[in-house]
Amino acid sequence: MSRIAVSVIVPTRNRPALLAHALASIAAQDLGRARVEVIVVNDGGVDVAATVAAARVHVPVRLLTTKHQGLPAARNAALEAARGAFVAYLDDDDVWLDGHLAAALDVLDSGGCDLVHTACLVAHARYDPAAGGPVPARHAFDYVFDPRLLAVANCMPVGAVVMRSPGRWGPRFDTRLAVQEDWEYWLRLTRHHRWRVHSLPVATAIYHRVTDHESMTTSAATTLTGLRRFAAGHRLIHRRWPVPTGGRIHQLRGLPHLMYELVAERIRVGEPVDPCYYEKSLRVIADAVHGRLEVHQAPDALTAAIAPTSILMNREALL
C-alpha cells in the first residue's frame, strides 16, 4: 500500500445525517483508497458508529470519540492521529465537489507552498454533490490570498483548506478560542511560521449557510448572544495579531466591528438581517483593502450588505 497522501479531518457533534453526506463527498474524491484516510472526531455527541461503518465501504475512516471540548480540540485530536503527508478539513455539515483534493494536492506536491485554499461557494440550501445540478449559492469565498485582507477578517473557510501536515510538534488550533479558531490558525501559520499560501480559483468546496439549520454562524445573524461571541472573538484576534498603527489596514480593521454594531442594532429593533451578512460585508472589506472602495464609502456599503436583499429590492421599487 502506498503512503497515505492526505488525512481528512471531520469533527462532528449530533448531526449523523449531515455527517453521512460529508463523508459521501469525501468518498467521491478520485484519489484511490490507499491515498486517503478520514478521521471523524465525535465531539461528545450522539453515537455515529453506524454512519462511519457505512462510509467505510467506500473510504477508510477512523472514528475518535472524545468528551465535548469544542472544534479546536476535536481538530487537534485528529491532527495527533493523522498519518497523511497533508491534511484537509471538512465540517460535518458541509461537502466537497469532485476534484477538491486532487486539485489541491497537485499544487502541494509541487513543493511551492505549504497551504492551498480553493474557492468556496456559500449555499443557502442543502446541496448533495451526488445528485448533481447547480449549487444554490449567491455568494462565494473566492479571494486570492492577500495577507492584508486576512489581517482584517477571515477569508478562508476551513473546508476550502488543504495543507501540509504540521507534524507531531507543529502548531495546533487554539483550544481557548470559542469561535474563529480557524482564522487565528491561518494568521499564526502565515505570520509566525511563514507558511506560503496558494489560491486556487476553482470552486470545489461548499459551505452551507442554511437559515433553518442550527449553527454558531446562524446564531450570529439572529441573536445578540451569538453575535457578541463573534464580535468579541474578532477583537481578541485583532489584539493578538496587531498591524502597524495608523496604516490603512489598521484603519480598515474598524470595518468588521462596525459590521457587528450594525447587525446588533438591527437585531435589537427587530429588523431582519441577511443570513449572508458576513459574506456580503467581506466583499465590501476586500474592496476597501484593494482600493476599489474608499474608506469613507464603506459604512454605507456595509449597511446595504447587512439588510436582506429582498428588502433592498422592495425599497428600490418604491423609489
Structure at a glance:
This protein has 319 residues and is of the alpha/beta class. The protein is 41% helix and 18% strand.
Written overview of the protein:
- The protein contains 13 helices and 9 strands.
- It has 319 residues and is of the alpha/beta class.
- The protein folds into 2 domains: 6-208, Spore Coat Polysaccharide Biosynthesis Protein SpsA, Chain A (Alpha-Beta Complex); 216-318, no CATH class.
- Strands 1, 2, 3, 4, 5, 6, 7, 8 and 9 form a 9-stranded mixed beta sheet that branches.
- Helix 10 packs antiparallel against helix 11 (277-289).
Gross CATH architecture of the largest domain: Alpha-Beta Complex
Give start-end ranges of low-pLDDT stretches: 310-319
Structural class: alpha/beta
The CATH first-level class of the largest domain comes to: Alpha Beta
Number of helices: 13
Helix content: 40-55%
Largest sheet: 9 strands, mixed
- Domain tally: 2
Query: What sequence of helices (H) and strands (E) makes up the elements?
Result: EHEHEHEEHEEHEHEHHHHHHH
